[in-house]
Amino acid sequence: MLKPILISSAVALLLSFSANAENIHFPEEIVPLQVGDKMLESSLFSRIDDVELAPGTYQLRLKYTDLYEDDYDTHEVVESEPFWVSVTVEAGKDYTLVFNRAENAVSAKVFAEAPQVSLKAKSSAVAKPLSVISNTQLASNKPVMQNTMPAGRQPIKPIAPITDKGMPSAPQMLDFWWQQATTAERKAFLEKVTK
């Protein structure tokens, strides 16, 4: 009797977390890098396909990257510079970021120079084109990000790479995670390291 109650409680808990945020799914060729001031961490082995956001308006920093075969045994990677778009997330809707994939590397290079992406609600047949925000617009307006951090947490600060391979140092990583910790988590950590 206890086991079914525990399982149903765990399922209810998991569903309650996902009910508070809407989801944006990204295709393989569009890499989400940043939401407002929050850097998104991904790597070759842990790619971000989905981002959950509370309803509101956000500025997303994205990058286009795609692979095209040139000949039988060669290929070419086409990438854009990172670019910003503004999205509005509505309550109760999940989204997919969509774009028209180029048929060849030449067309992909044209797309990379001026990326055009759209946001499609999963319940809708029509995608809404997103405006790319220029760097001059960004300089005049700070990116908008609705505060979705739990109480006691600070906004995430980007980690500046300092090594020749672009990797952050251990002190930078410690500082980064310290800034993300709640007061209780900081206190527990200090107690642990001072034993």
Q: How would you characterize this protein structure?
A:
By secondary structure, the protein is of the alpha+beta class. The protein is 28% helix and 28% strand. It has helices spanning 2-18, 105-113, 135-140, 170-180, 183-193; strands at 22-25, 30-35, 38-39, 50-53, 56-69, 75-79, 83-89, 95-98, 118-121, 127-129, 132-133. The strands form two sheets. Strands 2, 3, 5, 6, 7 and 11 form a six-stranded antiparallel β-sheet that branches. The longest helix is centred in the first third of the chain and has 17 residues, at 2-18. The chain starts with a helix and ends with a helix. The model is unreliable at 4-18 and 143-162 (pLDDT under 50).
Distance between the termini: 42 Å
Query: Averaging pLDDT over every residue, what do you get?
Result: 76
How helix-rich are the residues, as a percent range?
25-40%
Question: Cα-atom Rg, whole angstroms?
Answer: 20 Å
Number of strands: 11
User: Helix/strand/pairing class, anyone?
Assistant: alpha+beta
State the major sheet: 6 strands, antiparallel
Number of helices: 5
